[in-house]
Records
---
Amino acid sequence: MIFYNPSGAPELACDECGCRWFDRMANACYECGTAVTAESLAEYRRALDAFQANRTGPASPPVAGRPET
Ligand SMILES: [Zn+2]
């Protein structure tokens, strides 16, 4: 399941208990151990991409690895 935090960013949450703490190494919920499904991950990815596309604008300077001086 996907939540959106107050700033509009998507957050992946457990389908079973709704918590948002995941073990990213195991792709499983910390609370109940439910594995994150590929569908959920794909959905989260899409939501994240959409969010970042919306954020990218004149207001946010690009974070490029530009050498100083
Ligand atoms: Zn859970």
---
Amino acid sequence: MKKEIEFMLNEEKVIVEVEPHWTLLHLLRETLELTGAKEGCGVGECGACTVIVEGDAVNSCLYPVMEIEGKTVTTIEGLAKPDGTLHPLQQSFIENNGVQCGYCTSGMIMSAKALLDKNADPTENEIRTSISGNICRCTGYVQIVESIKHAAGSMKNTQAAQNGK
Ligand code: FES
Ligand code: FES
């Protein structure tokens, strides 16, 4: 039997009926038509389904939908500004060839965002650890790490410019 849940999704309140056995990924893709998070393995191994819940990167294919009641969820669809300006991570993945087939990309970016939101100046090791649960079958890891590094740099520069105003 369906149950109603309420949570914040990409800064908007969502009230929706769900089947208690659904995963968060199922709700996002099949009901809310947010298809940025991908289903790769469906068992928590590949990271293609990564979204951010309460500030942490999670595998939405394993996340029980009933557990998002009252929580804050961010998906790749929530990253660009309303005027279409891409998030620095999205821009950097384009500019630094961090995208090949693109299947892993939204998961990679969400894992990286969860890192940069907590640590604006990560080391390469910290970057690699943050995406250690994300598999790229195109094996573009060097460009992906570069993309995250450049995004961190450009976000720091923007912050410094804003502070200098
Ligand atoms: S689809 Fe969720 S970890 Fe692979
Ligand atoms: S770009 Fe193809 S799986 Fe990563």
